[in-house]
Task: structure prediction
Amino acid sequence: MKSIYLLFLFFSIFLNAQEKTETTALDVQYFSGNVMAHTDDLQHFLQGHPNGIYLNLYQKTYGHQEWQSAFNYPDYGGYFIYQDFKNDILGEVYGVGALYNFYFLNRNLKFNIAQGIAYTTSPHDKVTNNKNAAFGSRLVANTNFALNYTTKLFDKFDLKAGFLFTHFSNGRIKAPNSGVNSYVLSMGVTYNFQENLERKMDTLTKEKVTEPIRYNFVLRTGVSESSIIGSGQKPFYHPAFYLDKRISRKSAFQLGTEVFFTQSYKEYIKFMAIAYPNEEVELDTDYRRIGVFVGYELFINRISLEAQLGYYVYQPYKSDIPVYDRLGMKYYITKNIYSGLSIKTHVFLAEAMEFLIGFRL
Result:
């Protein structure tokens, strides 16, 4: 009983500490929908309609920091998601992570973006679950996008309904890894722990904020396994150089090039050359690839969201389409140094989960 009392005491202190500048809210949502069959080996997974629960605990902002009013007073916090795929092969997943909520249409329309990690109950196993081509490991990355319409219900409760997209994948850290995407309908309620506060207006100048062209040096690294199950995890190194031009308080555009030294790709070429001689793959085919890309970066306080679209200008072995894309999140440790995490994919198929360190000069 003493520990429970201390827990409630801590929670009360936390809420009271936030009431002068921020307030706290909790979203509880139920969802149900369908799995998206983005690869042929997912067809046999479409036996039922996945459902689950999506919980969001977050702080509501009121403009006490400059970035808050610039983004129409967003929310930030953490989430928990439980999803049952209604399939013995895929099983269930439990995920946690961080979130942002952005508001539109007089704050009735809420866009939720969340990213974290999840635990899968039925990953691939060559003996007991060899049909699961989606999850090669118990720990996977999780990304969620939600769009909800909210309206006042009564007292401190709001009603919300909308759409939710969930993605689970280990970024090919371990094969197999086709991942699972779901699109679902959701409905739930929001409980506001405190009454809303008065929002501070943006007092900064309305003049356009720009910067000179900046130079970025980035190293992305990690481990990956080729699509050959059991081939083993190998390191990769993806150094990049790009220019970015900030055009406003929120946005910057990018243009750059990068080189891919992916050891699992090198081993995959050797495997194909030996195992499939009819494919006429040379054993000494260069595994390195060079890409050029354009990108967009959205600055939110010290965190930024990044999206890039690239094309291989050098790709001797063409196992994938020549176009690739990347989604990531960065944290600016200082004004010039940042770290983060990104997912490199070819459309819906992930190739690498990249941990990055970068310098912006």
The chain has three helices and 16 strands. Helices lie at 2-18, 66-70, 263-275. The first helix runs from residue 2 to 18. The two ends are 55 Å apart (CA to CA).
